[in-house]
Design a protein that fits this description.
heterodimer; A: 488 residues; D-Maltodextrin-Binding Protein, domain 2; 2 domains; four-stranded mixed beta sheet; globular; B: 315 residues; mainly alpha; MetI-like fold; disordered N terminus
């Protein structure tokens, strides 16, 4: 008599389970594991999520951030994805990785969901188009191509990511020396132009003046600086010149674009060529200009190891007058426990190339990261992850993020009157974001980037010249891209 | 009076009498095999299977980052690797670093061994301090030396700045960067060579030196005819062991120079890592890994030959 009872119980449980699964409003415990670089913008996201997030679908949602140190971030994420462990539901990703991991089948195409969800559509419409282009589209579409479509989301375009932290590089500078009367007068006397002190002065600073600043503030131990005797050498300027990852490409691309040169344009594949473009006269001239300023920088620049963290560190130690670095690295500069110049720092737009009409072109390579969803998530997890996206890109959350050292990609938030005053670099960020373009997104980007970084490094360390380096880059890219059918 | 049954008739639990699979398995004849089975299983899962798998992959055109179905292409990857100028450049760089570093380790290690072969105050404490570098992690050593070489605030530049007004930019040239890596590696592993040589030195019978002194043999002759024969096999061991290890050098290079300037310090191990985990050329990197493994096996056999010879000499 036991058996029929057991059968009935099992059948009942099965029916109940099936019914529960079918119920649309069933609330569940959902854990979203997100791969994230370990730095303030992601740490804040986790803290703020734990304090404020409530699932609109009634789920009990946990955001489990896997904080990974920056230097090993790509390798760790790539290893996880390609190993098939399916650990992450969301990933903070560099925009360059989109192609590799979309083609690998790991990043979820969100185009249909964005089209079907008015909230997500509204977010995409409010995002700055430079960010949508760089962070979301694959195959890559330029900002001009997206704007040409006239509607957002643009038809025929695949969308994958949303901004987690949109970043641009700006100038960090020492007000105590740049606004010192004696230094200003001496600079004026020597170069016949003003030493940039205010934000407006930096708006009018081009690369020529950047070089003058470097030369002017190159001081030996025992020299005077802003009325004080130096106990060690001092350097006027620094920007990224590192061999690792993209730590010279990001700055060199800016020089090339501003000078009318270009990198290989994936949005015009397969017609776009590498040879003749990457090593054009304009590109060589721009790279030469980039190299010419290294002589005024701390000597670590000559080793090819001045990455974004090293220049930030040298600035915080008070050894450099002005650096060009990512906004995301600004917060430690203002920390009295970490920075000797926390109370002397101000921020301005990065210098650029002066055009014939007197205006300054500040085209730069976008930084920051989008976050994406992975393909193995259930519908329930995808929906909840998109709820997290909506929460993060809600204006209230974005304002809180900005107050805590983050940045927003939403044009409505950036346009709010309080925005520029929330953090000291915000005005520069808003000005710079309009100039942003991005490097390639194809799956072979790392191979291209590594070879390019090696050639740039040879030029930075004085082994070869700008032309030789760009010729080698162009030849390599042409061959590689022809091999994979991206150039015909 | 009842007769109690004897124990030998009533103990079915003894292995001798247990039947079925359990009894068969616990048979003393199989006990040894049973005990090593878990270790072999782990070895198979963790080492042998991945080795076989990656060996198989080296004959396909598989990329871990791509969804394309891998296509068999025979020895093409091996051919590509062996005809790639970049690979030969990396082998050349590796050879330069291995050669320079091992020679430096031998010289420093040998001199240290001579020093510690004699008694002096606080010898034990100093010996312990000298041995410390080889106990540190590669990452720590790499970071230390990177900071030492830093031209703006590094200790090397600081000291040399007292002599020259120019900052000392050690890692700014290919030669300087190679020297920087060699010095770091030699600093870490010279104590290892010292330990081996010291073992040889202390094994030399004292009476041989006394006899040499009575014969008024010169220092050089004493070393050549008494000391060196006792340590030569150990020196060979040190050379082979350090060559094999330095051939696989990755951590220190990656941390100090990341292979730069340009690619002038990129060893074959760093290049292999980039090919596998940055470019995701999985099959090609497997082929390269097997070529590197082949070289290491050749070196290891030389090492084993030296060990056997040493054992024969001791016997």
């Amino acid at each position: 008599m036991k058996t029929p009872n057991l059968k009935r119980t099992l059948m009942g449980a099965t029916i109940l389970a099936a019914g529960l699964n079918a119920a649309p409003s069933f609330s569940a415990d959902i854990t979203i594991t997100m791969a994230a670089p370990d730095w303030p913008p992601t740490r804040f996201m986790k803290e703020h999520f734990d304090q404020t997030y409530t699932s609109p679908d009634g789920h009990t949602t946990t955001l489990d951030m896997d904080f990974i140190p920056w230097p090993s971030f790509y390798e760790r994420v790539a290893a996880s994805l390609t190993s098939g462990e399916q650990k992450y539901q969301m990933i903070v990703t560099d925009s360059q990785w989109l192609g590799a991991f979309v083609e690998g089948g790991y990043y979820l195409n969100l185009t249909d969901r964005i089209n079907e969800d008015p909230e997500l559509t509204a977010i995409m419409q409010d995002l700055h188009p430079a960010l949508v282009s760089a962070y979301s589209t694959y195959p890559h579409r330029t900002r001009a191509q997206l704007e040409e479509a006239g509607v957002v989301p643009a038809p025929g375009v695949n969308y994958y990511g949303f901004p987690q932290f949109p970043d641009t590089y700006v100038t960090f500078y020492r007000e105590d020396i740049f606004c010192h009367e004696g230094e200003m007068a001496a600079f004026q006397e020597k170069y016949g132009t003003n030493l940039p002190c205010t934000y407006e002065d930096w708006q009018d600073t081009d690369w020529e003046k950047w070089g003058q600043i470097g030369e002017f503030f190159l001081r030996e131990a025992g020299d005077e600086l802003a009325g004080e005797t130096l106990s060690e050498p001092f350097y006027g300027i620094a920007y990224q010149a590192g061999k690792g990852y993209d730590f010279s490409t990001m700055q060199i691309n800016a020089f090339i674009w501003q000078n009318g040169g270009d990198i290989w344009d994936e949005s015009k594949a397969p017609e776009a060529q590498a040879e003749g473009v990457v090593n054009s006269d304009a590109a060589v001239e721009a790279f030469d200009q980039y190299l010419s300023f290294l002589q005024y920088m701390p000597p670590v620049a000559k080793t090819g190891q001045m990455d974004i963290f090293v220049e930030q560190d040298l600035y915080m130690q008070g050894k450099v007058g002005a650096i060009i670095d990512w906004v995301g690295l600004g917060e430690p500069v203002l920390d009295p426990n970490a920075s000797t110049v926390h109370d002397k720092s101000a921020f301005g737009p990065a210098p650029g190339t002066r055009k014939d009409d007197g205006s300054i072109d500040r085209t730069g390579n976008i930084g920051g990261q989008p976050f994406v969803l992975t393909t193995w998530n259930s519908d329930e997890v995808v929906n909840e992850a998109l709820n997290v996206v909506k929460w993060w890109l809600h204006p209230d959350t974005q304002i809180e993020a900005v107050k805590n050292g983050g940045q927003s990609g939403l044009m409505s938030v950036m346009a709010s009157p309080e925005y520029n005053d929330l953090r000291p670099w915000n005005r520069a960020h808003v000005e710079m974001i309009d100039w942003q373009k991005d490097v390639w997104h194809i799956p072979e980007f790392f191979e291209m980037l590594t070879q390019q970084q090696e050639e740039f490094d040879k030029a930075i360390t004085g082994q070869i010249g700008a032309k030789e380096a760009l010729d080698a880059v162009a030849e390599f890219q042409q061959e590689l891209l022809e091999d994979i059918g991206m150039i015909e | 009076m009842a007769v109690l049954p004897t124990e030998k008739h009533t103990s079915p639990a003894t292995p001798h009498t247990r039947g079925g699979f359990g009894g068969w398995l616990l048979d003393p004849k199989r006990r040894g095999a049973l005990l090593v089975t878990p270790a072999i299983a782990i070895l198979f899962v963790m080492n042998i299977f991945p080795l076989m798998w990656s060996f198989g992959l080296s004959f396909f055109n598989y990329k871990a980052s791509s969804q394309r179905v891998p296509r068999f292409q025979g020895l093409e990857n091996y051919q590509d690797v062996l005809t790639d100028d970049k690979v030969w450049e990396r082998f050349q760089t590796t050879a330069i670093i291995v050669g320079s570093s091992v020679i430096l380790q031998l010289i420093v290690g040998f001199l240290l061994a001579l020093l510690f072969a004699k008694a002096f105050p606080m010898r034990r404490i100093v010996l312990m301090l000298v041995l410390t570098p080889m106990m540190l992690s590669f990452v720590s050593v790499g970071v230390f030396f990177k900071l030492f070489y830093e031209p703006t605030f590094g200790v090397v530049s600081y000291v040399l700045n007292k002599i020259s007004s120019e900052p000392f930019v050690m890692l700014g040239s290919p030669e300087g960067a190679i020297a920087g890596i060699v010095i770091a590696d030699a600093w870490m592993w010279s104590p290892f060579v010292m330990l081996l040589v010291l073992a040889g030195l202390v094994s030399v019978p004292k009476y041989l030196y006394e006899a040499a002194e009575i014969d008024r043999a010169s220092k050089w002759r004493t070393f050549r005819t008494i000391t060196f024969p006792y340590i030569k096999s150990l020196l060979l061991l040190a050379v082979l062991f350090r060559t094999i290890e330095t051939f696989k050098l990755f951590d220190i290079v990656y941390i100090i120079t990341e292979g730069g300037p340009g690619s002038s310090t990129e060893t074959i191990a760093v290049y292999l890592y980039r090919t596998a985990f940055q470019f995701f050329k999985t099959s090609q990197s497997s082929a390269l890994a097997y070529i590197v493994l082949f070289i290491v096996i050749v070196l290891t056999n030389l090492y084993l030959y030296a060990v056997n010879r040493r054992a024969a000499e001791v016997d």
